[in-house]
Amino acid sequence: QKQLVESGGGLVQPGGSLRLSCQVSGLSLDYYHIGWFRQVPGKEREGVACSPTNGRASHYVDSVKGRFTVWRDNAKKSVDLQIDNLKPEDTAVYYCATRHGSGCGTLIAWKPGDLDMDYWGKGTRVTVSS
Hints:
Low-confidence stretches: none
Order of helices and strands: EEEEEEEEEHEE
Mean pLDDT: 95
Helix content: under 10%
Strand content: 35-45%
Number of strands: 11
Radius of gyration: 14 Å
Distance between the termini: 39 Å
Oligomer: single chain
Number of helices: 1
């Protein structure tokens, strides 16, 4: 069964860190760039980071550069997202997703109404609050 499953969300204080994980099954990470997205309450889902295949440099949107780090573990078939110095505005449901044939630049630029991803996870909730 082809699926992506996120984990690692939770409640954290501002300034804290979280590591989210996207477990991939039924798909070969050799052929799929994996994007991380988030949906803030009341706002559209947006891309934040992407892990490309073949060891190429990861992609980040400007608003998260320096605080978000994405990497993949091909042996574990997971793509993790480390979020440091969490801010209340990072409160969101975080999703991983992929679409075959789409590069990271395309994935993280995705907006609702664009060609949908082939596979979405169900999301993991991150709440940043004191």
